[in-house]
Specification:
This protein is of the alpha+beta class. The protein is about 20% helix and about 50% strand. The relative contact order is 0.20.
Length: about 220
């Protein structure tokens, strides 16, 4: 809860009035002739192993929306990242680098650093959106007319992946603890750049804390 309150403070410092980022809905098509394992392998090979992207970010909490600009470098093969974030007038709020195990603060605005573990809170959302985009080969498969669902469990924790649409891409990822859905990520669109895929329109819904992150890809470097 302390990290959630810190996120609220962080986005209040970036306040830019109300905003909305509407994304076009997924176009569902029949998947009767699609092999789940071939789909999984093709999607994995299509993802860019390294990304350097600029995203617009909108944070939504209850009736409030705030905007920012994020510059992110990702090495998916080594599960590492670097990110810096600016408010709408160009002031740097933080710069972080990390991986699955740690997050290090290169720079954090003093007001944010004094109020809790901002690097950990931001790092966790980066991992939720960009890491673990491909289910394990051993994941349980459920094939429906318009969706192919992979489910992998580790004790009481579970990740559920949903693939759909003309590209047969990942469109949803859900994380559960027991029967409770803690957070979900929705991938509405991808950009194909130099024959590799980049998530281009993403919404992260944190069900436990009640906030949304809307991420729109602006530029691939």
């Amino acid at each position: 809860m302390r990290r959630f309150k810190l996120l609220i403070l962080f986005f209040l410092l970036m306040a830019f009035g109300c905003a909305s980022v509407p994304f076009k809905g997924i176009q569902y098509v029949p998947l009767s002739g699609v092999s789940p394992q071939e789909l999984r392998q093709e999607f994995a090979s299509g993802l860019a192993p390294k990304m350097e992207v600029i995203n617009s970010i909108v944070f939504q909490y209850k009736w409030h929306s705030f905007a920012a600009l994020g510059i992110t470098q990702l090495d998916l093969e080594n599960s590492s990242f670097k990110v810096s974030c600016l408010n709408p007038v160009g002031i740097k709020l933080f710069e972080l680098e990390g991986n699955r195990e740690r997050v290090d603060a290169v720079f954090v605005l003093k007001e944010l650093l004094e109020r809790g573990d901002l690097p950990k809170a931001v790092g966790e959302d980066i991992r939720r959106v960009y890491f673990d985009l491909v289910p394990e080969a051993e994941a349980k498969v459920k094939k429906e007319k318009y969706r192919i669902i992979f489910t992998q469990k580790n004790k009481r924790k579970m990740l559920k992946y949903v693939f759909a649409g003309p590209g047969h891409w990942l469109v949803e990822k859900h994380y559960y603890e027991g029967k409770r859905n803690i957070w979900s990520v929705y991938y509405y669109d991808y950009l194909k750049f130099q024959d590799k895929l980049y998530p281009a329109a993403v919404i992260l819904k944190h069900h436990r804390f009640g906030y949304n992150l809307l991420i729109r890809l602006k530029e691939v470097r």
